Structures are given as structure tokens and as C-alpha cells.
Amino acid sequence: MPHPILINGQWIASSATKTFQAVNPATEETLPGEYPVSPWSEIDEMLQVAADTAKEMRGWSGSRFAEFLEAYATEIEARADALVAAAHEETGLPVSPRLKDGELPRTTNQLRQAAEAARTESWRNPVIDTATGIRSILGPIGPVVVFGPNNFPFAFNGIAGGDFAAAIAAGNPVIAKGHSSHPKTTRIFAEAALAAITATNMPAGLVQLVYRTSHEDGYKLVSDSRIGAAGYTGARHTGLKLKAAADAVGKPIYMELSSINPVFVLDGALAERSEALADEFSGSCLMGTGQFCTNPGLVIVPNTGAGQQFVEAVAARFGKASVGTMLSASVQQSFAAGVATIQKAGAKVLAGGTAGGGKGVSFSNTLMTVSGTQFLSDPEIFQTEAFGNGSLIVLADSVEQMAAIAESLEGNLTGCIYSDTTGNDDEAYNVIEPALRTKVGRLLNDKMPTGVAVSPAMNHGGPFPATCHPGFTAVGLPGSAARFAMLQCYDNVRPARLPATLQDSNPAGIWRRVDGKWTTENV
Amino acid sequence: MPHPILINGQWIASSATKTFQAVNPATEETLPGEYPVSPWSEIDEMLQVAADTAKEMRGWSGSRFAEFLEAYATEIEARADALVAAAHEETGLPVSPRLKDGELPRTTNQLRQAAEAARTESWRNPVIDTATGIRSILGPIGPVVVFGPNNFPFAFNGIAGGDFAAAIAAGNPVIAKGHSSHPKTTRIFAEAALAAITATNMPAGLVQLVYRTSHEDGYKLVSDSRIGAAGYTGARHTGLKLKAAADAVGKPIYMELSSINPVFVLDGALAERSEALADEFSGSCLMGTGQFCTNPGLVIVPNTGAGQQFVEAVAARFGKASVGTMLSASVQQSFAAGVATIQKAGAKVLAGGTAGGGKGVSFSNTLMTVSGTQFLSDPEIFQTEAFGNGSLIVLADSVEQMAAIAESLEGNLTGCIYSDTTGNDDEAYNVIEPALRTKVGRLLNDKMPTGVAVSPAMNHGGPFPATCHPGFTAVGLPGSAARFAMLQCYDNVRPARLPATLQDSNPAGIWRRVDGKWTTENV
Fold first, then answer.
1. Which one of A58, A79, A177, B295 is most buried, by most CB atoms within 10 A?
2. Is B29 annotated as catalytic?
């Protein structure tokens, strides 16, 4: 008997004929607990509940959603030990500092920031044009389906992470699709969400959970007429099929598909602090066994003595560093395949390159190099994403070649440039930056991309294939909530019939753009 | 020898082997002037020029684009007589008030509002988070391809209309694809644009023009790696193919595909002002021979004596009103096909229903009715868009049935509710409005949807198939410009390297969100 699924506030026995179990990647043992692969009938029921819930919640004030999000954060904290234990077992990620002290507080912090965005309506962009009598505001888009990834069992979980928090902040019900690698973690979140729903008197259909569906049912789900939008973080191949299904019926789908996060290190920076940079890069690249969306997978350094020395220094660190456990056998296989592709294309392996070396599912810390000329001979193949504890260093012959490499890149979440502190690299920076700027969502100076602060100015996004629309961020309120919204305009609508936030009086002091000026005043 | 095309500031002879000519719909005569169907080699050249131009303009201040847009508006005004004459000849639209006094001033006004948005950077949403050192802003997305429609030769022209103005305001070069029905009008705009480019010392590649391509080359164009995004207003069938091509490679494409703009008339409103409403509706529906994106093509009235009287009053007006010239034979054929589909599904024709009746290409003013029950038996077929001087009136049995009809609708640009002025209809309004609200971009009270003010609060958008993303508007600055932007985040970037608009000092007094508060002050 598999674990039940959460439909309309009830834990319902699934009629699934297929089930799955998670595997502990550190021991390679199958974990207890069978979880269902839900048939379409169950998804269909959830969709109907979600659509009814969206109708029920039309016009509700942001504070109701804020109360739920805050209660949920508290319920999560009450289950912290169980969540951390489950996630550790299911993902191999270290308990401390990663899960307990890093990712869990980040997750509850994000839920609380989403509550703040809901309460202050900072995501809604109210615009009032008194001359024409037209007013507009962002409103909920409708039920949101969230597919969480494997690499952040808390902070990006479909039922607790960034997309979830954003969708709820914008006043939408969520159908969460848990990731198959950590169902128990997801189940505990669902229990906490249900407790928070009850505590704050929200509709039972606000949060529903399905553990797994067939691929075909996934395509049906994201293109169903009852949903408003979907969010997906995961593998490019699967993502593109979901995208095609959603696009065909004009349903927005926000995706995070692939990013190798180029880092450019300029001459002066190497001259000034080569050893420190080797430490910083190695630490960033191997952290979490390299399984971050923002992992620096491509480094471009000058093909000089100093550049070659940097490569050797990194290779030595990769060789010495302990090898982490990967999230799953399929992550390890994909990583091995990515490394093999890059190697076959002509890159030289300086460290690692072989399976094993760590506890359980693992692959040695892998460093490869290639010349700038070779990279430019086939930029596509050398941009193959190898998601894990490895990186490719390109030895570039000139600043112009560095800029050409930047121009040859696909869209990425991030791009970094390291330069010296005295201005010697400024000329080179000015050549490379314009090329890099349009290829990445977030541009960094002198800092590795791995950290993604939950800041209103954050952009965790970028041109395709990093995401599927370069105008949006998946992290950082209120921007992330605005993705799950539709623009609602009121033309000549009688004053009493306007949403409270668009009426003349503004007792809550919400920021509104009135006749071109931002203000918290009444009209 | 066909007319040349505009590539990189030069009028270049096309190597086209196919050409086309426009037709005067009022006389049904072919107009002089052959225009080329450009081969891919010419599109490819434009794409390269546009990509190079986008690079050249990186980081340019908004005021440069503002100067161009203002100069362009002036150049258009200098050619007003020629533009009006050409458009009248090519579209059959009346010179006055439509073209000369309405659409042309609207177009230059829109260009000037776009200039204002560029100069004040109101579309850029600068966000500064001093605690984390992260700052972000919208920046140009890259070359934009604009496909203009047939029905607004000025205000939505690919080289002068809303998408064009928005794309330039956001700092992007434009490749305009003129509509085949009015090439001469488009050519005069291109001459004006080129004069403005020269006058303001902008790059020659800022605005380029192709008159026509094969369908296949259109798909290649919107999915080319060198473009940033595309805009398209036109037929749903063609639009969906362009969308599929762009979506497959993650290129944003903004489309306006279809909208029937439902109007609900409640009991009290009919009791209070039935004759006036019949006038108002007939005027709106037949204006411009009904060829507006926001034409009211579906009216829902109570199935009462008053409702039936309203239907008869409208039918009488449709019968008496003069029949306008349609834009082209293909518009007339599509309209006839739409009417036939709706009639075949069971609607009764109360007025019109036959081809001809006006000058040149025309179709009689057509009014159909159907019962609410019948409508709900096949809502899809009764929502067939019949683009032209006609409408379908649904006689609904109850307020609940009206709400069910609202729920059954596809996405639309607009939705209207007419109610009485004393509050008798408020209960019915409160039942229908929530259902209608999520289906339309713009909700109106007591006002026909045909007018689309260029207001910052306007939403000329809506859920699919009205558009392909309900979060954006195609009309109204600064929102329309934000569509052609990417989100650019700066993390730990050295102060002097930030874009001027994100630096601490804010001498231009641009509105920025600093630590959660909107301000024009320095940091």
C-alpha cells in the first residue's frame, strides 16, 4: 500500500498501479516507503479542486495568504529535525551546515518574505491614471503547478520552495509535484502545509501534493485549461517537452533548464591573488558536490604562465579535496556522460574523470582544460552541462578571444568577472563585460556565483536555456511572485467595485504608481 | 523591378523572384507598385545588421532613443497627407475622422509617449538592495521583429505602431515586417524613420524593413539566435505557427491572436436605457466596419421582453446603417466563414448575413442570436471569431446562466458589464464579474471596448488566445516597453561599473525601488 496523496485537504489512498521508492545515495540502499505514480484520474481531481479553490479565493486580501505562509514557516520549523533527517537520508546532503543551518532557514525565510510581499502587495504594481479613469493591477493567474528539482530538497521543493512561495504570495492554489528522489521530505512538508491551512482557516485545496505522474500526464497537467501557469526546475530534456505542451495552449511555464555559469579571470587578478582565487573557485565548484544551478562549470583564464599555474593550483586542490556523495545514480550518470562528451571533444582531464572516490554514489572531482581556439571551434559541445563536482577551464589567447567566448555562450543564470583591484584589468573588463552582460541574468564581480541571496534585486533567471523568458526571476520577492500573475485593467469601473488596492483611499499605504509618480498616499 | 527594401539605412534592390501588389478594397483594383517577397538571404543580412546594431547601442542612454522617437513623430507629421492618402487607398478606411484625425495623431502621440518612457526610464524597474549589494534593472532584450496587422495601418504598423514604439523605447533595433495589404503606407513610414535616424545620428540599422517573406522564412526569423523577441498581431492560425517556432528556442514572442470581447447587459440597464444602449452598441460594433481587435462580437442579454426588444432595436439599426468597405477580400472571406460557422451551429440571422451591400469589398452588417442554453451546449463553436461588422447576441435565461457563459469563455482582451445606475443590478454584477474578471485583460463598466487609450494603466492584453501571456500589455507605456527587456542583475559589481541608473547618485531623478521604497533620491 503506497503512501496516500494530498487532495483537497485529505490524505487519499492512491489507485496507482505503479509505485516507487527513494534510494539513499550514501548507502545505495533502497529506503522504506512506497510512493504512488498517480493515474490521471487523481490529477484530474486535484485540478478541479484547485480551480474551485482559485474561484473561492478571488478578491481575497493578501494578508490571508501572508498568514498562511507565516504559519507554514512555523510548522516547518516545528518539524525541522524530521525534515533534515529525511532529506539527509534521501539526498546525501550533509546535515550541517547545509541542510539544518543553511537550506532550512533559507526556506522559512523565503516563505516569510513571500508573506511580506503578499501583505504589502509589493508584487502587484498598481497603476492609476486619473486622466482616463483607467486603473490596473496584477492579480492571481490561477492554479499553479510546481515541479521541484532534485538538488534542493527544501529551498526549491515544489511544496515549500521559491516557486511555491511565489505562487501562494500571488494568491494562487498550488499543485505540487514532488521530486521522486526525496518523497519523504516532501511528505513532511505537506503535513506541515496542511497543519498551516487548518490553523489559518484557508481552503483545503490551497496546497495539494502528487508524488509522481507518467510523463504523458505531466504534459496534460501543464496544458490543462484549469491551470494558470507552471514552474519547473530540472533536466533540460524533460523540461522542453513540458514547455512544448504548455506553449501549445498559451499557458505560461517558467523553467530553469541549464546553466554553466562562466567565470572570467583577468590577468591582473591572477597576478594579484592567484592562490586565493584557486581556493575560492575550488570551494565554490565542489561545494554541495557541485550540484548547484549556479555552479561555476566554465572558467576562462589567460593562456599565460600565470593562467597555467592557476589551472595547476586548482587541479591540485581538486585532487586533494574530499569527494562528496551525489544526489542519485542518475545525477552521477549524467555527470559522467557530460564529462565524457567534453573530453571526447578534445578537453584534457587534469584531475578526476573517474566514477567513485566518495561515499556511495560519487564521481571524482573533475577538472578539464581546453584552449580558447578549440573551444571556439565548437562552442556548443564545450558548453555541455556536466552537473556535478567538475569544471572546464578554457585557456584564452587574448582578451578579444575571451570576448569571443562570451559571445559564443548560450544563456546562463550567472556570469562572473574577476579583475585586479588597481584598475589594470579595466580595459579588458570593458571589452568582455558588454558581451557577457546580455548572456546572463546576474553579473558578478570578484565573487563566485554559487550563493543566491533572497533579495528583491536578485535575478535567478537569464536567457534560454537558463530559463525560458529573460524578463523574470525565480528567486527574490516581489519579482518572483509577479510571474504567477495576470494583468487586470479596470476601465470606467465604478469606484466601489474596484479592488481595494485600486480605490482612491489607500489606508494600508501600498506603493502605487499614480499619474506617473510612485506614492503611498490616497488619490 | 519591385520596390527596394530597407537594410542598414540603404534602400537595396531586392533579389526577390516573387512580388506582390496591394489592392484598393473600395475599387477592387490592383494598385500600382510591385513589392518584393524577400528571400532568406535578405532577412539574414538584416538580422546580422540588427545584431551588430544592438551591440553598438549597449549601454546607451534612454535620451538617445527618445530623440529618435520624437524626430520620427515629427517626420511622420511632415508626411501626414501622403500617409493618409496611401492608407486610404490601401485599406478603404475613411480619411476623416479615422485616418487623419484619429489614427495618425494616436500614432505620433504613442511615439512621443514612448520617447518619454525612454527618457525617464520608467520601463526599467531599477531595484537597489543596499543590504546585499545587489542591484537590478531591465535592459534591452536584443533585436525585435515586429509583424504588423492589416487593420491599423498606422497605430499598429510594424514600423510605426505600438510594438515598434515599445521595442525602440527599450533600446532595441527593430526589423519591421510590413503587412502585405498596405506596403505603400509602410514604405512612407520607413522613409520617415530613415530621415529621423539621420537627423538624430542613430545607427542605420536601428530600423529595417522587409515587406514580405515566405511563411517558412517567417518561422526562421522569429527563432533566429540573433533576435531578442518578436511581436505579432494578426490571424490565429499563422500566429500559432510563429509562436511554435519561437517557443521551441525560448525566444519571447508577444502575440495578439483573437478576441470577441463579450458585453453583458443586465436587466436594470435595459430597463433604464435600452434605446441608448442599442445606439451605443451598434455604433461600437459597426465602427471601422467592425475591424477592431476590441470589437464587441458577443453580447449577452437577458432573455426577457426587454432583452428581445433590445435585440430587435439593434437589428433595425444594423439594417439601416451604411455598410462599410472591408480591409481586403481575405478579411471579407474570413468574416463570411465565421458567420457561416456560427449560423450553421444554430444561431439565427436577424440582420445581414450576405456578401456585398457596401462600396467594394463588403459584407452586410450582420446580427445573429442564440439562446444561452444553445451557446453553452457548444461554447467553442459560438466563440468563433467573425472579424468584421457583425455580432452574436446570446439571450440568457438567468444571471447564473450569464455567469456560466462568462466561465465558458476563452481569454479575451476585454469584457464589459452594463448595469443600471441605482444599484438594482449590483447583485447580478457580483455574480458575473468574478467569472468574467479572470477571462479578460480589461474589464469595463458601462462603456464599449472599442477605444484603447494609450494610458500607463491600459491593458491591451489578456489570457490566451487574446495574447500568449496574460501578464503583459501591448498598449500603454511603460508596460508595453517592458516586454522587450531582459532582467539584468548586478551582484557585487564595482560602483563605477554599474549602469548610470543603478549608481548611488540619481541626478536625473529616476524612480527606483531602494530597500523596498520607491524614490527619486540618491542612495
1. B295
2. no
